[in-house]
Design goal:
single chain; 414 residues; Rossmann fold; 15 helices; globular; binds ligand SAJ
Length: 414
């Protein structure tokens, strides 16, 4: 068993910390957000995720997971902080740098530092160099140079878990473990072996960084293909969902589903790290990002066009989350659509989102927007827009919508 310090108790750090504690490790979780610290310290999950609450309560009750505002000395450090993009879609590594600076003074000989945050190629070496500059008293590894004398191990083990199935995937998914050197990868493997039942593949840190970025770009490009088809189908008068269903009967075709756009903090962000590194070469990846980013506006335009035909239109948006059956509104295309409708349309907007108790800040201040339940929305709206395929929406009695205009961005009516 190891002492592990998890820096960042967000969507990745918190499930990871709770999982490690459940496997008997002694875990210190730290976060700069006082609300997160308060909640997690009291054994309360700071976001909804199946099974997380149960695992976390046990971790805190047994004393195996403790929280504090700053990192503590440990044998292993996991950095799980955000890596957004900044101006010009350039990667913003300021959180990784701050976390690196916070652990540097604590490092002891033999410590293992693992970067889990998605990061541009070269970031793990940059973390190593930053630690080395802060700790000239310790010997650090160098990429590609096996060094038996190195006293610290550094690796990149990008997370892969899917919101909605995080705990299951945390255990079952295969992992890529990229060391600055092979010895670094092997040292990180010892920690992952304690809870991962999937295969752990060892490689170097640059490859691991690249692998993570291409996984998310692959998905973005494929969703963009589906979204582009929905625009083309609309122009040509073809039902895109039926067309995709039929195309997918081909043994080598597996087209994804068009939607309101691509949200969340991963797929809409990470491909830009590749574009930023090689802008003139990553043409398809950039185009996919642009197609997916343009989709919410296209959906909003269609709704506005219908609304223009009514005198005092009442529009109901079904779903605000960035994808079905989660409470996460981060970078949600549906929030962008709702906001645009409320600001631009001369209309009353009803929002249905069973996963939240209050409107998000982008909508809360607008006096023509109200959060309502499904029945109210179905009764009062002239136009119904399906933006997210939450389970309760899928069970809706469509007969009740007769006479309404329906804009179905996600194929819910099929
Ligand atoms: N979407 C569509 N059509 C589809 C599938 C998804 O429009 O056919 C939309 C969703 O509604 C959502 C967005 O794409 O807005 C992304 O959703 P997602 O379920 O594909 O992925 P995330 O962002 O929840 O999680 C992804 C996962 N990555 C991949 O599947 C390659 C997860 O495994 C990663 O851990 C996570 O990103 C991450 O942190 O990188």
């Amino acid at each position: 068993m190891m002492q592990v310090c998890v820096v960042g108790l967000g969507y990745i750090g918190l499930p990871t910390a709770a999982m490690l504690a459940s496997r008997g490790h002694e875990v210190i979780g730290c976060d700069i957000n006082p609300r997160t610290l308060r909640m997690v310290g009291a054994g309360q999950a700071s976001f909804q995720e199946p099974d997380l609450q149960m695992l976390l309560s046990a971790a805190v009750q047994t004393g195996r997971l403790r929280v504090q505002a700053t990192p503590a000395e440990a044998e292993c450090y996991i950095l799980a902080v955000p890596t957004p993009f900044g101006p010009g879609k350039q990667p913003d590594l300021s959180f990784v740098e701050a976390a690196t600076d916070a652990i540097a003074p604590l490092l002891r000989r033999g410590a293992v530092v693992i970067l889990e945050s998605t990061a541009p190629v070269g970031a793990t070496e940059a973390v190593t160099a930053r630690l080395a500059a802060a700790r000239p008293d310790l010997r650090f590894p160098r990429h590609g140079e096996e060094d038996a004398e190195a006293e610290i191990r550094v690796a990149h083990c990008p997370e892969r878990i899917l919101p909605g199935s995080m705990l299951r995937e945390l255990v079952a998914n295969d992992r890529i473990i990229g060391g600055v050197t092979e010895a670094c990868a092997r040292a990180a493997l010892r920690l992952y072996e304690s809870f991962v039942t999937g295969q752990c593949y060892l490689t170097d840190c640059r490859t691991a960084e690249f692998v993570k970025l291409i996984e998310n770009s692959y998905r973005d490009v494929n969703i963009a293909f589906a979204n582009e088809l929905s625009l083309i189908g609309d122009r040509l008068g073809v039902d895109v969902w039926r067309a995709i269903e039929l195309a997918n009967r081909h043994p080598r075709v597996a087209i994804l589903q068009p939607g309101a756009g691509v949200g969340g903090h991963c797929i809409a962000v990470d491909p830009w790290f590749l574009v930023a590194a090689v802008p003139e070469t990553a043409r398809l990846i950039r185009a996919a990002r642009e197609v997916n980013d343009a989709k919410p506006d296209w959906v909003a335009e269609r709704i506005l066009r219908h609304a223009a035909r009514f005198r005092d239109p009442v529009v109901a948006c079904f779903g605000l989350a960035y994808k079905p059956d989660v409470d996460d509104l981060r970078e949600s295309p549906s929030v962008a659509i709702a906001e645009r409708l409320a600001r631009q349309g001369n209309l009353t907007l009803l929002v249905v989102e069973p996963h939240v108790a209050a409107l998000p800040p982008a909508l809360a201040g607008l006096d023509n927007v109200t959060l309502v339940d499904m029945a109210t929305a179905c009764r009062e709206a002239d136009i119904i827009a399906f933006l997210v395929g939450h389970k309760p929406f899928r069970r809706l009695d469509l007969q009740g919508l007769l006479g309404k205009v329906v804009v179905d961005a996600i194929g819910l009516m099929r």
